[in-house]
Specification:
alpha+beta; Surface presentation of antigens (SPOA); 4-stranded antiparallel sheet
């Protein structure tokens, strides 16, 4: 195939690698001994409470998705394709039951549907505890 050129990336990598490797010492030459000492690092400790509060401040302006779920159901594709304007889809929640409020996909709260300036809203009636979510 011919000789490799200097423009070949593989060839230039080999050259760089060989330049980083030390060449063997000439006969009669001894390398100086390098002293190796263990490094004494301070043990890691818990951050101070003031530092934690500062870190929390960074998160307070982060936006996360919040979804209110009125209810859900399962349907066969055949039935979904038959939906037309005016069709009614029955959900698994009864009228008057609280709706679920999810934050980043995790159940966070429950509440009731309200109207706020011609838009729907949720009045939070209960913050769901971690134990309730896991159950």
């Amino acid at each position: 195939m011919g000789s490799e050129t200097a423009g070949n990336p593989q060839n230039s990598n080999d050259t760089a690698a060989s330049a980083a490797r030390p060449e063997p010492a000439a006969p009669g030459y001894e390398r100086p001994k390098t002293a190796v000492k263990p490094h004494n690092l301070a043990p890691l400790s818990a951050p101070a409470a003031a530092g934690e509060a500062g870190n929390m401040d960074l998160l307070l302006d982060v936006s996360v998705p919040v979804v209110a779920q009125l209810g859900s159901t399962e349907m066969r594709i055949r039935d979904i394709l038959r939906l037309t304007p005016g069709s009614v889809v029955a959900l698994d929640k009864l009228a008057g039951e609280p709706v679920d409020l999810f934050v980043r996909g995790q159940l966070f709260a429950q509440g009731e549907v309200v109207i706020v300036d011609e838009s729907f809203g949720i009045r939070v009636t209960k913050i769901v505890s971690r134990n309730e979510v896991e159950a």
